[in-house]
Amino acid sequence: xxxxxxxxxxxxxxxxxxxxxxxxxxxxxxxxxxxxxxxxxxxxxxxxxxxxxxxxxxxxxxxxxxxxxxx
Length: 71
Known about the structure:
Order of helices and strands: EHEEEE
Strand order of the largest sheet: 4-3-2-1-5
Helix content: under 10%
Radius of gyration: 11 Å
Shape: globular
Distance between the termini: 22 Å
Number of strands: 5
Number of helices: 1
Largest sheet: 5 strands, antiparallel
């Protein structure tokens, strides 16, 4: 896992581009994020976990920032 802090900020638009591991873990999240779709960041937890609009209350909380790319 990358130890760098998340370079994204609240209100940034990011694209969900999960790694194979991230995709496998994401299957357990309900509702599921869609690969290649853009999302607006509403929160960054612990400097590394991104929470996107519409998924604020998803089980498991945020997703590691490296699973996203800048829009």
